[in-house]
Amino acid sequence: MSPRSPEDATFGVGRFAFVLIAAGLAAAGLSGCLQDEDPNTFHVEGRAPSSPPRPVTGAYGYPSEPPVLDSLALKDFVEKFPGRVVLLDFWASWCSRCREEMPRVVELQSELQSSGFQVISCNLDETSKWTTETVPFLKSVSANFPCVSVPRTAKSPLRGWLDPNWTYALPGRFVIGADGVVLARLTESASIEQVRAEVEKAIGGAGTEPSIAARGKSGMEMRAKLIECSTGKVTSFPALFSSSSNSGELGTKVAEAVGGKVTNRTRRISILPVGSSGKSPAAGVLSEAVADSMIARLRKLGYMDIMEPAESRQVMENKQLSTAAVEFDPSVVAGNFSADYVVACWMSGNVAGATASAEPGSRRAKP
User: Fold this and answer.
1) What is residue 183's three-state secondary structure?
2) Suppose 170 and one of 15, 33, 148, 322 were both cysteines; which one would form an S-S bond, judging by CB atoms 3.0 to 4.6 Å apart?
3) Domain for residue 357, yes or no?
4) Do residues 73 and 182 both lie within one domain?
5) Contact, 51 vs 133, CB < 8 A?
6) Count of domains in the chain?
7) Is there a single domain that holds both residue 121 and residue 246?
8) Distances (CA, A) of 220 to 32, 67, 291, 298
9) Other CB atoms closer than 10 Å to residue 366's CB: what's the count?
């Protein structure tokens, strides 16, 4: 059965071109997705509707309203992950191959996050489907990365940025290097294995300096953001690194970065609990040690009005906020904290092999 509205499936490809493309893909044994006439997310390629995925709690906290980003806003969002290789994964829930391969994308994020990698999921469903179909599907595969909604009006600027030859067939995946350059263009003909190979190649880097992957395996990495509570304005600091035997150095480096931005020492600063890629009790102890070092260093720099992680956690619970929600949209802290600034940090790398060192003067420092 030929789809009634092929232009919707390829974001503007004509009917005749669509038929040729679909026939070519079928002949080549490829499985790029083209939208069916029925707008029901789970009614795909002429088959009868299937049941929506069962409600499963996912690994990422998605907002109740779809975060709609055009091309410029998406570029800005990519820049919020400085020093990291980013995979833009364009998909829609009517694309069967996109759905089938999503668990592999989740695996990529889980396995390579500590090596300096980040997935940004770019959804092309109608925004009206966000809470009823898009997010439930993401939760059903325990998605562990942010997802944004991309409007169709963004198609021309996106193609100009990512790939002038992209026909908007799905899935469409683009690897962005740590310097913001598009390194690989992986459209519907590329397998998920090719995607992984290109991502690992990008993470490996080049030159004489240790790559992000190498530093992540042998030591610790910290990403930190400073959020102004009154406006929601965000400052994202470059990735910070330390050896596994001196994890407290990460907290010290974050404190010094904050000191470079907040010149008024009387401002109140809230320190959120430090997020970690590790789930063991040892990872929790390590996160607390890094936070203690950060606080000790801030006090040495003259900041005395500090809301510590335990108090900040209580505020987050009362406001029904999560660390994942703050990572996805830092502006959610605006108006929710009785502080001037919020510091949010995420730690990854060799968490299991790290020791909980501390800044001199912190509670954990040895006398």
Assistant:
1) strand
2) 33
3) no
4) yes
5) no
6) 2
7) no
8) 39, 31, 14, 21
9) 6
